[in-house]
């Protein structure tokens, strides 16, 4: 489809994204999610066809990361750069940011000439998303009281609840692999826990996936060993979504069983809800000995489930023996990145390039979220870019 | 006032800012300071009205920070970006810069394609400003000997003597609050020491404030507990300025007394001159035990002056019970950021948003200093920007 | 010569640089090296004459540094910025990159919207250049399999074998000092080991110099104390080059003798090959005690050769007592940066500004390598830039 047709599709959607932060997919309407996908696809195609969607002549995009991340950092930087914004990192080591009373001050201090803020804060259960909302409120006040000339839009780059840039990139990948969102109806996707030698991986990916994919009429199965529950409220959202969309949502506790006849599989480790709760308390109290103990307990428990590895044998039981394997990367690949991991090397290798394609949508999803936030009429702006004939490589 | 009128005002000023570094306000003429304010205001209004003052198509703005600072870092980055320069940080951890013989080499190595250098070096008494002048000399030589295609302009982002981007932003804030520089005549401003649980805060803010505000016919009162003196030479500058400008300058040692009838109050902690002298010696000798001892001594002495807190009660004694409260942020707010601090929470909250406005001028002051340094005829360039119709948000 | 004439010179060269990484000078033809010099000179002249060669409207230039480097970091940033690319650093502290299996994944993850990647990896013998080729292969695969919309070009910013951006900047400096590459014929250049109080300096500079300068008909002499050998294969390349170019290549072991009648001298410390081999093994095994021992042994051995210092006395024996002194900087200057060093302060001071000029070519060499990689027809693009009338300082 050419860009023009995509813009026409976008024009038919009823959205209210202008000036709204992107924090959780379940706060957005179906049309709004479609619009994010559409704008992302348009921006990607523009880049591929050497059209430059540089809508800003200047302006900052601030990234606030509470942990390290090559992938998300580069995705954010790419998105900002594509639209014309310069990235300014706000690492805690470089600055004085903190939770609590100083948030509202700092939020304003970094925003005088800022158009977008990306925040990654997935360390503490019950904190990351809350922090983003604190920043948002501070920005609202700053804009209202004329401290800020415009209200920077916030993009959630991963929190304790959701990882919307990941799940939306995953959705765009599925749309491309299966031809359309409509084609996802009736497809079986298995979001499965998988063994990893590490401990404490965030729950935001599985939560994001089940909450999002249940909106497209898919049969979503969440498989994990007893005890590895996710946040209950988010599981409820998935259940509701499945009902509304005419799909299904099921929780099960046997990996190999779950994989049977799957169209799509997403085997990935995470830490159980109750461990994350304990961990958050210990972290808050800076109880290092307690954390060490918890880690040992958790790893010991994990070790019981080394057979939760996505294998060639399992793959053969999936739909046509060829379920689309997905992962947010990096995966724990058995005998490659670790001894026992989430996936057999042979299987991973088969879908490796596809996981790269999957990851490749993320910069455009982020750019799309920024874009939708800043323009009241994205259709007109995208058309304007096309008409302007601006080239990315100028000569 | 519209931009056009501001440009006309600027045109009437007699300045020699082109190619000159901005290191100390007292090295600049009255017209030059006015020009900096005027250009800053024009750049701000351009940004607000979606005019893009991106005068550089490429070029670096190098920041050299010897301590961490979110606020100044972001202000510098915003200023550079607004004018079209990319920020390149020169953190000491990332590089090999040092005082002494290597300064002149490094200054050239980072400047081959650089237009502006912002330096923050406020750790050592007698060193920060000296270091900037060392860099400046090295750049002069590099430019003269054709090592550098142009001479980057230096902006002092805080040194041991002055904090001109802060004091000039403060002045622009006052101009806006009171309507004009002329209206500042006869106003009483109190720069007061205030209690803080921390130790060793630089003297550059109070020094910058008294040296600058005495130029506008204000009644400037510097209040601090006995012993918390500033650098004597800079106090003398304030005295001279007051005489010339028809204002007054007074040193006093009772906070509550000083605040009476004040139009503007600036309560802020700093370390006394003699402590800073001792500290500098100890730092140079890397005498960690000595530093620890000095800190204890200083904190113990500070603790005698916990009543140097700007309170609601004091506020009521100011002009109309509503003196404009100023602070360079972050303030030590009692019961918020610390138990006992510089200001009562209730008072701070009343003026909180105004302190944000105050801070919001800093990016534009920095941009203005860069701008004035690079263009022989800023009036023509600003007019050229307006005429070009360049938009910041392009669509 | 004006830019137009330089473009004409470039047009006569037969090159195949488009889409090719720049990893080793000896993989490039004579015409290709000439083209890199010519493009660098054109870009420099454009910058000097306020023409803006900003060929990219957006895009990232990724820098991967395995050690700290102010100079190269700033050169890379300047080059990227000049062409319109935003720098995104990939410090290991900030990310999850590693040798081995994850290289191919990370290489793709950082490249979705990336045009150029600069890599500095000079720590391990036999590793740095290999790593670059691993990245290159991963990028080839990513581009071929449509993971990447374009193939980022790699520039070697220093590896265990070569330091092509340094040696090519040095060559451009020589071309400027002596008028032309042709004029270098018959000139004597001495690449000499020199004493330094530090240990383990990479061999890439001397290796790069002897492998490159032997191509221009010069009499290249490599002087070092017995035992301080370079990688034998690269010495062989120098020998071959000398034969082909009609120059000469000679290894000797007496500094003062070597310097006699030299036109150009390059006294610089390095660690011997066998020490580097041992060091690499120890580093791989994380044998810290072994490394400590090796360092002591190496320093002890170095100390025998404190008289390998380039002195005023030696200088007087060079051609007309005025051989061009070169150094990649920073030099170990006796009684300045250290007690005993590579060069006497008095001598260094005489050529100090010239070493700055030498260094000043590096940003343009890097920009040239990026440029040549990205454009099939650099002549047309350079002409297009000229014709467009784009200014760097816009007003």
Question: What is the strand and helix layout of this fold?
Answer:
Three copies of one chain form a homotrimer.
Chain A: H1 3-11, H2 30-48, E1 60-65, H3 70-83, E2 86-89, H4 102-109, E3 114-121, H5 128-144, E4 153-159, H6 164-178, E5 188-192, H7 204-213, E6 219-223, H8 232-245, E7 248-252, H9 255-259, E8 264-267, H10 273-284, H11 288-303, H12 312-317, E9 324-325, H13 345-360, H14 362-374, H15 378-388
Parallel strand pairs in A: 1-2, 1-3, 3-4, 5-6, 5-8, 6-7, 8-9
Pick out its properties.
homotrimer; 395 residues; alpha/beta; Rossmann fold; 2 domains; 5-stranded parallel beta sheet; 4-stranded parallel beta sheet; 15 helices; 47% helix; 12% strand
Overall mean pLDDT score of chain A? 95
Number of continuous helical runs of chain A:
15
Work out the oligomeric state of the chains in this entry. homotrimer
CATH top level assignment of the largest domain in chain A: Alpha Beta
Dominant shape of chain A: globular
Largest interface: A-B, 40 and 37 residues
- CATH architecture label of the largest domain in chain A: 3-Layer(aba) Sandwich
Helical content of chain A, roughly?
Answer: 40-55%
**CATH topology value of the largest domain in chain A:** Rossmann fold
Largest sheet: number of strands, sense, barrel closure of chain A: 5 strands, parallel
Series of secondary-structure elements of chain A, N-terminal to C-terminal: HHEHEHEHEHEHEHEHEHHHEHHH
Question: Which regions of chain A contain 5 or more consecutive residues with pLDDT less than 50?
Answer: none
The computed structural class of chain A is alpha/beta
- Largest sheet of chain A, order of strands side by side? 7-6-5-8-9
Task: Measure the end-to-end span of chain A.
Answer: 26 Å
Radius of gyration of chain A, rounded?
21 Å
Strand tally of chain A, please? 9
Number of domains of chain A: 2
The CATH homologous superfamily of the largest domain in chain A corresponds to Aspartate/ornithine carbamoyltransferase
| Strand-residue proportion of chain A | 5-15%
């Amino acid at each position: 489809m050419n860009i023009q047709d995509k813009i026409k599709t976008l024009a038919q959607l009823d959205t209210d994204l202008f000036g709204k932060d992107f924090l959780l997919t379940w706060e957005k309407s179906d049309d709004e999610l479609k619009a994010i996908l559409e704008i992302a696809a348009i921006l990607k195609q523009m880049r591929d066809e050497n059209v430059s969607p540089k809508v800003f002549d200047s302006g900052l995009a601030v990234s606030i990361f509470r942990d390290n991340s090559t992938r998300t950092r580069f995705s954010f930087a790419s998105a900002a750069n594509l639209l014309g914004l310069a990235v300014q990192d706000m690492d805690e080591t470089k600055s004085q940011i903190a939770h609590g009373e100083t948030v509202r001050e700092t939020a304003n201090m970094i925003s005088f000439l800022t158009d977008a803020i990306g925040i990654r804060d997935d360390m503490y259960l019950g904190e990351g998303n809350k922090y983003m909302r604190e920043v948002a409120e501070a920005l609202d006040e700053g804009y209202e009281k004329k401290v800020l000339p415009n209200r920077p839009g916030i993009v959630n780059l991963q929190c304790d609840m959701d990882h919307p840039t990941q799940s939306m990139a995953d959705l765009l990948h599925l749309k491309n692999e299966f031809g359309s969102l409509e084609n996802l109806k009736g497809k079986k996707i298995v979001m499965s826990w998988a063994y990893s030698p590490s401990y404490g991986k965030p729950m935001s990916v599985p939560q994001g996936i089940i909450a999002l994919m249940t909106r497209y009429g898919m049969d979503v199965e969440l498989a994990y060993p007893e005890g590895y529950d996710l946040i209950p409220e988010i599981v409820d959202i998935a259940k509701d979504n499945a009902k509304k969309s005419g799909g299904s949502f099921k929780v099960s506790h046997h990996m190999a069983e779950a994989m049977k006849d799957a169209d799509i599989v997403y085997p990935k480790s995470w830490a159980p809800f109750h461990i994350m709760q304990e961990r958050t308390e210990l972290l808050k109290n800076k109880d290092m000995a307690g954390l060490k103990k918890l880690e040992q307990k958790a790893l010991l428990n994990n070790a019981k489930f080394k057979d939760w590895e996505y294998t060639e044998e399992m793959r053969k039981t999936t739909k046509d023996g060829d379920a689309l394997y997905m992962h947010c990367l990096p995966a724990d690949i058995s005998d490659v990145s670790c001894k026992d991991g989430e996936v057999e090397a042979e299987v991973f290798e088969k879908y490796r390039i596809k996981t790269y394609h999957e990851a490749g949508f993320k910069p455009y999803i982020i750019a799309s979220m920024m874009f939708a936030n800043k323009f009241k009429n994205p259709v007109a702006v995208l058309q304007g870019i096309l008409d302007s004939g601006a080239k990315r490589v100028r000569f």
